[in-house]
Design a protein that fits this description.
Blueprint (H helix, E strand, L loop, with lengths): L4 H10 L6 H11 L8 H13 L2 H9 L7 H11 L9 H5 L1
Helix pairs in contact: 1-3, 2-3, 3-4, 3-5
Length: about 100
């Protein structure tokens, strides 16, 4: 049985692998176009960065809330950081 990217991303978060923060962010950057419309891999990266929780990981999450990312990714990153209301996201619109 092999692992897919989502499994590996999830494992890195579960073990709180601080050395993987930059790599996880690059995975999200590299997959964002192919990951639409649900952005499952990006969501796993966001969750793992949140679990790692270091200042570097949180900074990468903050970057993912910028306008250069798709709204769905931005919203998930904002939720992970707890700033979705500050950024003006409408939860019903994001989930609907």
């Amino acid at each position: 049985m092999g692992f897919n990217k989502e499994d590996l991303v999830e494992i890195l978060g579960e073990i709180r692998e601080t050395d993987a923060v930059a790599c996880l962010f690059r995975v999200a950057e590299g997959s964002v176009d192919e990951d639409a419309p649900a952005y499952w891999l990006c969501q796993k990266v966001i969750s793992s960065l949140g679990e790692i929780g270091t200042p570097e990981a949180l900074e990468r999450l903050r970057r993912m809330t910028s306008q250069s990312w798709p709204d769905v990714v931005r919203w998930h990153a904002a939720v992970e950081l707890g700033v979705e209301d500050e950024l003006g996201f409408d939860e019903d619109q994001m989930l609907g």
